[in-house]
Amino acid sequence: MDGQLSSDILRGHTDTIVLASLLDRDRYGFEIYNRVLQKTENLYELKETTLYSSYKRLEKEAFIESYWGNETQGGRRKYYRITEKGRELYQQKLKDYEFTRKILERLFMEE
Amino acid sequence: MDLKEFINNAFGKYEESPELIDFKEELLTNLEDRLQSLEASGLNRDKALKEIKTEFADINKIAEEMSLAKKKEVFEIQYMSLRSFVTKKQAAIYTVLGVLVAFGMITAGLSYLGSGKVEALIGVLMVFLAAPLAGFVYMGLTQETATRNPMRPLRATIYAIATFVLIFGALLVPMLVFGEAKSLEGALAVLIPFALPSIGVLGFLMITEADYRKAWVLKEAEKHNEWAKNFEASGNAQTFGIMTAAIWILAIGAFIFLLILKLWIYSWIPLVVALAVMMFLLAYYMRKSS
């Protein structure tokens, strides 16, 4: 990768990244964080504080739900589950992104 | 310093709320996992801890959000709701007291209708009104709410006893007038052993009362008492105080006068009028000061 990941752009899509992390299964905070790390090949990390703000926001708007796991050892983990409303939001965000990307490409190209 | 300590320190200056406790627990498990994964990648514990702390340099940003937004939310919800503070036992006692009052009212009404005697009605009220009301006083004072701390049981007991004696003594006056056909002067004399000591006790307790408002209420009150300062500073508060005193002296005088004339049914009117006039005055002077 020669280019650099723009942290601003990434941060602007935190909610979508969180929603995407929950599509296949429920995850808890560290797993979501770790997924971002792995997918970006450890090159970029989304700040945990940004992630937590995102969980709170999404949960308040009922795009995700949380529940405590029943771990037998150590502290309890708080898992997040995506709701139907969340899946709809994710699809919408995906479409928005696709649209934005096309426009940006057009704008970035030489005439 | 371990993670738990780190988290506690970071949130130290924020008021504990159920949400914050919740969040701290969530944070702790996540950070423990993060610590493990950093250690697994070859960092020693100290380095790993340091790494986490750097990553979490703006932890207080979340704390701020949690604490302010949630606090407001939680308080708004809890402000008017007693539910989270009333235990099942307390709820049962409130219900029993309420039923007792209702029972007293019905029985009093029935015994009056049955016998046609006012003293029968009052006699029932002396027990079934005074006792549950005293009970309500005790329960109310020892009840913790979102905004108030509970009073100590002993002090609340004295309040309750004084309330009982006061109501009992006050009801004794019409009781004696109607039942024993005593003169009003003679009947009013029974106020001396009953009403006077209980009023004295209540007065003493109220004057020496501590402030039971919770810390956050006091903080809120601080913000809202701007108008009170104006009210105080403009001299309107003093004028209002003197006028209120005058109104109540007149009202109580009129009340006693009507009693002496045996115009029982009209005796309450001056008190209600006084209360209403006081409220109008308060509204008028508050407006004038703002």
Automatic annotation (TrEMBL), chain A:
Coiled coil: none annotated. Gene3D superfamilies: Winged helix-like DNA-binding domain superfamily/Winged helix DNA-binding domain. It comes from the Bacteria. SUPFAM superfamilies: Winged helix' DNA-binding domain. Residues 18-91 form the Transcription regulator PadR N-terminal domain. Pfam families: PadR. This is PadR family transcriptional regulator. It comes from Oceanobacillus arenosus.
UniProtKB/TrEMBL annotation, chain B:
This is Uncharacterized protein. Keywords: Membrane, Transmembrane, Transmembrane helix. Coiled coil: none annotated. NCBIfam families: perm_prefix_1. It comes from Oceanobacillus arenosus. The chain crosses the membrane at residues 91-114, 120-141, 153-175, 187-207, 239-261, 267-286. The lineage of its organism: Bacteria, Bacillati, Bacillota, Bacilli, Bacillales. The keyword Calcium does not apply.
